[in-house]
Amino acid sequence: MRLSRYFLPVLKEDPKEAQIVSHRLMLRAGMIKQQAAGIYSWLPLGYKVLKRIERIVHEEQGRAGHIPLLMPTLQPADLWRESGRYDDYGEEMLRVRDRHKRDLLYGPTNEEMITDIFRSHVNSYKDLPLTLYHVQWKFRDEIRPRFGVMRGREFLMKDGYNFDLTRDAALHAYNRHLVSYLRTYERMGLQAIPMRADGGPIGGDYTHEFLVLADTGESEVFYDSQITDLTFGDRQIDYDSVEQCQAVLEEFTSRYARTDETHDEAVFAQVPEERRRTARGIEVGQIFYFGTKYSEAMGATVVGPDGARVPVEMGSHGIGVSRLLGAIIEASHDDRGIIWPEGVTPFHVGIVNLKQGDNSTDSACDAIYAELQARGMDPLYDDRDDRAGAKFATMDLIGLPWRITVGPRGLAANKVELTSRRTGETEEMSPKDAIARLEQIYAPVLGLTVQDK
Ligand code: P5A
């Protein structure tokens, strides 16, 4: 993309309404615009990151064998009357009435609807196990929407639902989700720690939240510091293996880590004092096992191996896709702006032309831009006629992890600068070498095969 043709409405001043850094930077970088309390338009740059995050979520769900579908945002109230949650959900549920006076609601979650789909089409245990998921907008009429996309009223969630014959099989689905979530967050450059939590309005008493530690987080958390040493890394997991998934769950949940809802001082006191931590965290996901809560209420049964019908065992699993943008920025920024991890950056590299209109720099930038695209990368070329300082400030604010700077003096010696946003380190090299370096860096992210040259 050429910046002269893009829509990037950056703000010079700090917006007053933003209390935390991620909200401030998302507004300043022209990523979102508030339309009503907790309701946002996603401007091109924000939309791009949202799509990158969504794509990682889809890839990791696919790897775990989960199947995508798409349910609507509006749901008939009658489904929720069946489960009893229409009355229970309270004021957080946005209720709507259509012209035929039928009650609808803007879905805050989809347990009822997916259970309805299941009972309409699945009859036998032979069709199990099954995990269906979608990435869809939700609405919760939060009392206090705040911190931008962090606590919105309309927000994007990945929500998945597992259907199994037995409790053990459903617990394997739970473990499988835990593993796939660990991978998903790490690909976004985040450490999200599973912590024992409370079922809330979804239900069930076996549930973990995934928390990214941050001072601005809304949840108070208590944990054994050893837990922060764990990483999933690039281990290969067979998602069908009960033992492998169970082993990962045990590794990541055997140390004390709880939200304030389930915190127990007596148990916490058994952790050696020097390892006890109290902190704040951002909840970026939650997994639930709730057994037959919805299937019994809604008559979702299957014929079991002995011919008798049994209610299906279920759980549900959510990732806060739009909240993740805020969480990533909270975890990765500096005074000058955002620092995107390579896995989610809106553009892979920024190209800054120090002398727009100069034949040599213009044609060098055009060539670099074309070559990066030819190799599967997505560059943002600042081709505006602006001061170098202003161009650098914009690139720093929007947080592209790499920048190529092209100026007439360097170019005379066939050199450009490659700068890391994270470390600020700059190296001089030929355009060809800069492109090759970026290709190496992005190969794992893009699934590229780098040819030896
Ligand atoms: C699990 C999937 C559920 O709704 N039903 C389907 C279960 N879980 S949850 O924990 O309530 O939500 C899942 C994740 O969605 C994000 N989230 C939000 N993001 C932005 N604004 C909000 N108001 C909001 N509410 C929930 C969180 O990341 C949460 O973990």
Indicate the CATH architecture of the largest domain. Answer: 2-Layer Sandwich
The secondary-structure class comes to alpha+beta
The CATH topology of the largest domain is what? Answer: BirA Bifunctional Protein, domain 2
CATH H-level superfamily title of the largest domain: Bira Bifunctional Protein, Domain 2
- Through-space gap between termini: 27 Å
CATH class of the largest domain: Alpha Beta
Plain-language structure description:
By secondary structure, this protein is α+β, with helices and mostly antiparallel strands. The protein has two domains: 3-337, Bira Bifunctional Protein, Domain 2 (BirA Bifunctional Protein, domain 2, 2-Layer Sandwich), CATH 3.30.930.10; 347-446, Rossmann fold (3-Layer(aba) Sandwich). It has helices at 21-28, 44-63, 77-83, 85-88, 111-121, 167-187, 242-253, 265-268, 293-298, 321-331, 359-374, 388-398, 408-412, 431-446; strands at 32-36, 39-42, 67-68, 74-76, 94-97, 103-106, 130-139, 154-164, 193-196, 206-213, 219-224, 257-259, 276-291, 301-303, 309-311, 313-320, 333-334, 337-338, 349-353, 379-382, 402-406, 416-420, 426-429. Strands 3, 7, 8, 9, 10, 11, 12, 13 and 16 form a nine-stranded mixed beta sheet that branches. Strands 20-19-21-22-23 form a five-stranded mixed beta sheet, sandwiched between helices. Strands 4-6-5 form a three-stranded antiparallel beta sheet. Strand 1 and strand 2 (39-42) form a beta hairpin. The longest helix has 21 residues, at 167-187. The mean pLDDT is 96. The protein binds '5'-O-(N-(L-prolyl)-sulfamoyl)adenosine. Residues 109, 140, 142, 151-152, 155, 157, 159, 202, 283-286, 288, 316-318, 320, 322-323 line the site of '5'-O-(N-(L-prolyl)-sulfamoyl)adenosine (P5A).
